[in-house]
Amino acid sequence: MGLFDFFSKEKKESLDKGLEKSKESFFSKLNRAVVGKSTVDEEVLDELEEVLITSDVGVGTTVKIIRRIEDRVARDKYVNTSELDNILREEIAALLAENKSDDVDDDFSLPVDKKPYVIMVVGVNGVGKTTTIGKLAAQFHKRGYKVVLGAGDTFRAAAVTQLKLWGQRVGVPVIEHGMNTDPSAVAFDAVKKAVDMNADVVIIDTAGRLHTKVNLMNELSKIKRVVQKFLPEAPHEVLLVLDGSTGQNAFIQATEFTKATDVTALAITKLDGTAKGGVVIGISDQFKIPVKYIGVGEKIEDLQTFHKMEFVDSFFKKI
């Protein structure tokens, strides 16, 4: 067994374990929906629709999945309820495969032609934004990349302190101006530091507590403008962090943030402590923005790059 196989196996086990609560909840609902039924009929499809919606897959994605299963039932005439698990797995996998923008090429690799690669991280407080930045820094650092962090969430002293602790833990520099300072100045200095030390990647935290969308838009636009003075093509990535355990609220946040700024990638955290893992399926389908990372546990290695087929396989794997 090669090193890659070992890590793949570890990663898969971590994903399986992280989705346990979601799977338990989903399959118990699914089993109740088909109890006493042998074929997939209209009544079962109605029940299935409710199962998917209450599993936080989202209405839009649920409608697509139900339509696909209706077509299949019409085509195959007789579909046994015992086949429903596999049919769901196949149809959800096919649905997600159609969203080509959603594929992540490699685990934590950075483009060689964009250096330093500037990632601006956005999201509301409490979603695990700063922790995700710390884990990302650790994953990049482990792969030999030079990393710089920018503590741009200057509204919260805790966010600055937390990022500094991550910097010490990982062994990467953190640029900070303390609390209640100008976030765009922090971003500028972080990018400047990254250029000066020939770093591969700079990750900039931003405030998660701006009361109106206009405020949020203005703040993020200003950070972008200031960074672009130094590096015209930056930021290369705007990563929105969402808390998977909030279910439908994650959809709402994704909608609001995509209106406020040009989000280019998504990270969905805290999937291990929740039965709402279906939200990843819905968000992956509904937003034409790739889900790049998922958080399935406390450990640094539990921040994983998102692979749709692996996720669907784990979600439908019987416990």
From TrEMBL:
Binding of GTP, residues: 123-130, 205-209, 269-272
Catalytic activity line of the entry: GTP + H2O = GDP + phosphate + H(+)
GO biological process: SRP-dependent cotranslational protein targeting to membrane
Molecular functions (GO terms): GTP binding; GTPase activity; signal recognition particle binding
GO cellular component entries: cytoplasm; plasma membrane
Main location class: membrane
Presence of keyword Cytoplasm: yes
Transmembrane annotation, as ranges: none
Key words, A-Z: Cell membrane, Cytoplasm, GTP-binding, Hydrolase, Membrane, Nucleotide-binding, Receptor
Pfam families referenced in this protein's UniProt entry, alphabetically: SRP54, SRP54_N
Cell compartment(s), UniProt: Cell membrane; Cytoplasm
Membrane topology: Peripheral membrane protein
EC number assigned by the record: 3.6.5.4
InterPro entries recorded: AAA+_ATPase, P-loop_NTPase, Signal_recog_particl_SRP54_hlx, SR_rcpt_FtsY, SRP/SRP_N, SRP54_GTPase_dom, SRP54_N_sf
EC top class, as a word: hydrolase
Domain SRP54-type proteins GTP-binding, first and last residues per copy: 290-303
Keyword Cytoplasm in annotation: yes
Signal peptide: none
Family classification: Belongs to the GTP-binding SRP family. FtsY subfamily.
Role, per record: Involved in targeting and insertion of nascent membrane proteins into the cytoplasmic membrane. Acts as a receptor for the complex formed by the signal recognition particle (SRP) and the ribosome-nascent chain (RNC).
Subunit details: Part of the signal recognition particle protein translocation system, which is composed of SRP and FtsY.
UniProt cross-references to NCBIfam families, sorted A to Z: ftsY (TIGR00064)
Name recorded for this polypeptide: Signal recognition particle receptor FtsY
Organism of derivation: Larkinella knui
Gene encoding the protein: ftsY
